[in-house]
Amino acid sequence: ISLQRPLGLDKDVLLQAAEKFGLDLDLDHLLKELDSNVLDAWAQIEHLYPNQVMSLETSTKPKFPEAIKTKKDWDFVVKNDAIENYQLRVN
Amino acid sequence: KIKDPKILGIDPNVTQYTGYLDVEDEDKHFFFWTFESRNDPAKDPVILWLNGGPGCSSLTGLFFELGPSSIGPDLKPIGNPYSWNSNATVIFLDQPVNVGFSYSGSSGVSNTVAAGKDVYNFLELFFDQFPEYVNKGQDFHIAGESYAGHYIPVFASEILSHKDRNFNLTSVLIGNGLTDPLTQYNYYEPMACGEGGEPSVLPSEECSAMEDSLERCLGLIESCYDSQSVWSCVPATIYCNNAQLAPYQRTGRNVYDIRKDCEGGNLCYPTLQDIDDYLNQDYVKEAVGAEVDHYESCNFDINRNFLFAGDWMKPYHTAVTDLLNQDLPILVYAGDKDFICNWLGNKAWTDVLPWKYDEEFASQKVRNWTASITDEVAGEVKSYKHFTYLRVFNGGHMVPFDVPENALSMVNEWIHGGFSL
């Protein structure tokens, strides 16, 4: 077990990040696009901060979905035709 | 029937509204709580208050900083005579979704620009329902702190892009904000190492290590500014935060107040737990119509997601340039005991920000600011035309918590005094 890789990363960190970000990674294109400073930083990050690489994620899921209880008895419900899909409920 | 929030005894003599903005097709629901002005709500301006994080509830601002009550250890409200609704109606909005009492049944946003569209639509519908707050030409301001230094410039730009809006945006106030990381990250080492008005809190070798890593950090932020790609902005955030913030955090000191140690809880202030406990009581949730059964002051998943979306290091200060060039008054204030969004960095970015009067602003002399309520010299101010920077003496990250009288002086002078201090 390597202390530098406690989570046993088995892929290149850029590929792993792309997977976490939900992006298709064209590595050839990316290597041309990113400057060496950025690529070096990715390489170091894999070793220095593996936990942060493992937690790469950008979508937010409801934290307590079971704890949502919709209420109905509002004093006002406001809609505006100019703003589709939006409404304001006021107590 | 949802109970009237007045039964909670939080400023029971003023009219108050709670509720949700629903974005139906995305299943997003934003919670808000509004307190009318204690003075003259028919004429006084309206302020939208936003806490930062990203991922922290604006009810922290309500109960910990500038709202009409704090919460005591017995979970009872304690009136705040220096509440910002003394002379303004104040709206506290929990955003983005999945923060505080706001929620989404599906997923949420992880960047500032997406959050801005929801805030604009909230304001349109709010003022549709309550035209009495705008139809006599009352002013409307957005104020916030910390990561709201990202939010506010973008939200204000989004608002100004809608020419047919039903409300006026009069000014914005940014307190201890993160707005221009490329400039501000230069000042963590000076602030921690004795150049910010307080003694150094780090050993010299830690200060040297911060200096040594700065060039690389700034190079990464520059790459992020140039490309604004997640591939550049994420490593900039990880590298710079570990190199420039972590040495201070490891000392156990309060990142929001260099004079103090971090005591209990994620945010270093034990009283924040009282607020969580108060808002998690059933009778409180019933009175405000909360549809989320479990309240947390900060959602660290949101924090992580903004960070890993590359939002942290993006150059949102360019929106400040646009706002100033459209003549929108802007106040940037900073409590001078904060580390994490310190006054040195905030002063520096306002000095180098390009806008139509940037040279004139930069050449202005700093002068003393005397707070009207206490009649004491409470800070230092630099101003030209509609752009003002204020250093607030003895304030931490959350200025209204540390110096409530002077914070109220500041906001009253700004919104009622023609945007000058």
What does this structure look like?
The complex is a heterodimer of chains A (91) and B (421). With 91 residues, chain A is an alpha+beta fold. In chain A, 37% of the residues lie in helices and 10% in strands. In chain A, a hairpin with a 6-residue loop joins strand 1 (76-79) and strand 2 (86-90). The radius of gyration of chain A is 22 Å and the shape is elongated. Chain A starts with 12 loop residues before the first helix and ends with a strand. The model of chain A is unreliable at 1-10 (pLDDT under 50). Chain B is an alpha/beta fold. Chain B has helices spanning 59-66, 112-129, 148-160, 181-184, 188-192, 204-227, 230-250, 271-279, 282-288, 300-308, 317-325, 343-352, 358-363, 399-402, 404-416; strands at 16-23, 28-35, 46-50, 69-71, 77-79, 89-93, 103-104, 140-146, 171-177, 330-335, 367-370, 377-384, 387-392. In chain B, the strands form two sheets. In chain B, strands 1, 2, 3, 6, 7, 8, 9, 10, 11, 12 and 13 form an eleven-stranded mixed sheet that branches. In chain B, helix 3 packs across helix 11 and helix 6 (204-227) runs antiparallel to helix 7 (230-250). Chain B is globular and about 60 Å long. The model of chain B has no long low-confidence stretch (mean pLDDT 93). Strand 2 (86-90) of chain A pairs antiparallel with strand 1 of chain B, so a sheet runs across the interface.
Structural class of chain A: alpha+beta
Major beta sheet summary of chain A: 2 strands, antiparallel
Biggest interface, chains and residues, is: A-B, 50 and 61 residues
Q: What is the straight-line distance between the termini of chain A?
A: 57 Å
Apparent shape of chain B = globular
| Sheet/helix structural class of chain B | alpha/beta
Q: Tell me what portion of residues of chain B adopts beta-strand conformation.
A: 15-25%
- Total strands of chain B: the figure is 13
Main sheet strand line-up of chain A: 1-2
The count of DSSP E runs of length 2 or more, i.e. the number of strands of chain A, is 2
Multimer state: heterodimer
Major sheet summary line of chain B: 11 strands, mixed
